[in-house]
Amino acid sequence: MLRNFFKPSLLLQNNLRYKYLSNICNDLGLNKLGITKPETIHHNLSYSQLFKHEVKNEEGSIMKCKYGDTFSIETGKFTGRSPNDKWIVKNIGKESDKNIWWGDVNKEITPGIFDDLYNKSINHFNSLNECYVFDGYCGTSIKSQKKVRFIHELAWQQHFVSNMFIRPKNKNDLNNFEPDFTIINACAIKNEDWKKQKLNSENAIAFNIEKKVAIIIGTWYGGENKKGIFSLMNYWLPLNNIMSMHCSANIGKNGDSALFFGLSGTGKTTLSVDPERKLIGDDEHGWDEDGIFNLEGGCYAKTINLLEENEPDIYKAIRKNALLENVYQNEDKTPGYENTFKTENGRVSYPIYHIENFHKLQNAGHPKNIIFLTCDAYGVLPPIAKLSSGQAMYHFLNGYTSKVAGTEIGITEPKATFSACFGEAFLTLHPSKYAELFEKKLNEHDSNVYLVNTGWIGGGYGVGNRISIKNTRKCIDAILSGDIEKCEFTKDEIFRFQIPKELPGLSKKICNPILSWKNKVQFVTTSYMLSIMFQDNYKKYKGKGLKDYSDYGPKIKETITNF
Ligand code: ATP
Ligand code: MN
Distance from CA of residue 206 to its chain's centroid? Predict the structure, then answer.
């Protein structure tokens, strides 16, 4: 009797439950993607809910940080982005096919292969009992803001995107939320058919612009979510004549804004946090007819060798609700930022308001100053140089920085890296499209442009040292306060930009790199070598229909006279 009594009621319960749950899938529109099976969908959980899930799912550990316990996770094999696994669907004849800069950065796959990867991801989510959905925004300018959705298996990944993207003010904001783009992150699965499909590995990050969806397979690295959407902003914005930029931004007390362009590790995040100025954002911005605006809602800082005395605001941002990634944990559960056993790319993400001095509006007028950051490990570029607008365009297209070869014994040679617009890996359109917009903006708003070398002085890697953050800050302060305009300049004989003879608090020896090199002949040879690399790289921007700025680059002279 009892059994009979219970059976139908259980059935009914299950039916009701199924109905209720499938309504959730329907309500959110996940069924349109093919996701129908997960019984529970956690939608835009709060930080405290996310924390409970992270702990319950045993996704990481709690790190004892000075300003509060912080959740900490590891991303497995991938501790950085995986650019060789990035693909875009070639939808022949469609808008994206005509617009995309096809090549090494944007490699094509067929719609068929995409569908295969897509189905694998969807099947995976349909095998799960629960999953997480975050709905939020990219871009603080309402005119060009995009609605983005992330579907994840793990709570920490939702935590990451909640930190990095613009969070809805309240749940009502999400009524009738129709995403402009969805990322389905099936990081837990591998694509076993990759050889047959002629892909690069069992991992894939694949975008289908017309279908408004991307999938991630095989890599857990958090940055793929963020930079995936950035690549799309780099598509949508310029097509609407809005500049999109891989740069940080801040604003002074008088409302003067500044941009800091630079490749990874050059100091965008470190230097945009400034006690005298308010932070707008640390990595991705747009520039439209009203001014500049952040694309994100948080920051993603490197933690390697992080010291409170050098970077107090970032250090203090590492507290409850921040999320540590691939950071070594000491025995006493404190973070070992100096320990690079796991990776040199240890990171922390946090919502922007964790930086005390953040700019609530997240946008500002047209930038008064633009700084190109470069980390020159050859030690020949000056810590600070003033660029003409032609030179600015040349350096913008070339996008130079260098990397040190690593910490292996005997390897002392730095490696030059050139990356168009200081962010080639994220450009979906041809670099000339961004250059065109940038030049127009520079001319319209008369922004000053400087090149700041945060790399080596007194000799290259292995001989000299990396310039201190303190001294780089003096360069930046001189630019932002306008003091630099009062300085006397000298022209660099090879690179031909203007170098200040000295700056408040910075000696002649630091300002002009040749003065700090013991071996002057070696300085000149190294400068020549670097300038040849500059010229070689620039060749790809010469050609029919492209505006040629090569006259603004380095020139090799027979005699050097300024030392
Ligand atoms: P990404 O695009 O990968 O986020 P980023 O441009 O934001 O890179 P930062 O995170 O600011 O780069 O990294 C700069 C790193 O270099 C930090 O770890 C910082 O401590 C270190 N550093 C050392 N010397 C300097 C200097 N003179 N100026 C700036 N950063 C320096
Ligand atoms: Mn950064």
Answer: 18
Instruction: Choose the catalytic residue: 152, 246, 359, 430.
Output: 246
Q: Which residues pair with 246 in a beta bridge?
A: 284
Residue 210: how many other CB atoms lie within 10 Å: 12
Q: Whose CA is nearest to atom 25 of ligand 1?
A: 469
The answer to whether 178 touches 62, Cβ cutoff 8 Å, is: no
pLDDT by residue (tens digit) across 345-383? 999 999 999 999 999 999 999 999 999 999 999 999 999
Asked if 152 and 214 touch (Cβ cutoff 8 Å), the reply is: no
pLDDT of residue 24: 72
Whole-angstrom Cα distance, residue 145 to residue 135?
A: 13
Count Cβ atoms within 10 A of the Cβ of residue 542 and give its class: 0-12 exposed, 13-18 middle, 19 or more buried.
exposed
Instruction: Please identify which of the residues 264, 272, 374, 401 carries the catalytic annotation.
Output: 264
Q: Give the residue carrying structure tokens 């505006």.
A: 547
Q: What is the pLDDT of residues 170-229, one digit of tens each?
A: 888 898 899 999 999 999 999 999 999 999 999 999 999 999 999 999 998 989 999 999
Q: Which of 325, 368, 361, 365 is nearest to 345 (CA)?
A: 325
Q: For tokens 């693909």, name the residue.
A: 87
Tell me how far the alpha carbon of residue 97 lies from the centroid of ligand 1, in angstroms: 36
> What value does the CA radius of gyration of the chain take, rounded to a whole number of Å?
25
Q: Active site includes 264? A: yes
How far apart, in Å, are the Cα atoms of 432 and each of 215, 421, 437?
Answer: 28, 9, 9
- Cβ of 151 closer than 6 Å to ligand 1, yes or no, is no
Nearest to 430 by CA among 205, 103, 107: 103
Cβ of residue 424 lying under 6 Å from some atom of ligand 1: no
